[in-house]
Design a protein that fits this description.
7-stranded mixed beta sheet; Metallo-beta-lactamase, Chain A; disordered N terminus; 8-stranded mixed beta sheet; alpha/beta; 11 helices; binds zinc ion; single chain
Amino acid sequence: MLQTFSSKCLCIFLILLIPVSTCAQSFKVTLLGTGTPIPMVERFGPSILVEAGSEKLLFDCGRGAAIRLWQLHIPMRDVTAVFFTHLHSDHIVGFPDLWLTGWLPPPFGHRTEPMHVYGPRGTKQMILHLEKAYRADIRIRIADEKLPRSGVTIVTKEITEGVVYEKNGVKVTAFNVDHGEFIKPAFGYRIDYQGRSVVLSGDTRFSENLIKFSNGADVLFHEVAAAKPENLRTSEAARRIIGHHTTPEDAGRVFNRVKPKLAVYTHIALLSTDPAISAPTVEDLVSLTRKTYSGAFEVGEDLMSIEVGDKITVHRFTPQSH
Ligand SMILES: [Zn+2]
Ligand SMILES: [Zn+2]
């Protein structure tokens, strides 16, 4: 009798354990926004969700990140921590939405615990001023709707190069990238989980330091920017923008050095500063990259997700799949 009872208990215990442990091993990266400041409906502002076991880490929070999260049916309260690569507006402009809308009571929000934010020097000032900017809303909702102050509290940490976060088996390492002389520090991030790793470039030109920190990475997510040669010849503005980013040919050189199992473009700037000159297309982007790189790569799309397991699996979003 006792034996039957304990084996039944063991069975229930195993049934309870299996889904939890399967879930705990998943390592998935979803591109919430693959765009730039260009206000495009197809490409929202830069934001990448990394799900590793029980952690849901958000890297940058550009335009529309809250909308993309809810397209995945992920409540905003579930984001464990937010990491900023740098403080250019296209990377942060979606943050007040995530922060304040995530505090509202409906199912997409309902945050009751403080948010945790990591970023470069200047992040604390930015958060302090956001709290001032939205003071009226915060005061009103606490008084009127009785929302808990804890749910709108932000715990901010300014970081430097090195390991910045270690929790539930996930390790996040920030490293310096090169986004131009006035944009320092600008970070890329490496995320390690259960012997696998992904690297997010942030905004950068060709960076030796990125190559160093990407050693052995399974998947490299890299920014890219391109303009037509005739645009670059005639426009100082186009040259200045491209000069802060990585050309497809240079990205190919980075991929050759890092040799990831898969490279993925995000923060995709296909631009023209002259209405008479068309912007490069995705096909142009692919053929320019192929000049220097013959390995596996994807041109990222919003809500594309990449599972990092024994195999690297790429999923494109369809409304039916969610
Ligand atoms: Zn940017
Ligand atoms: Zn930038």
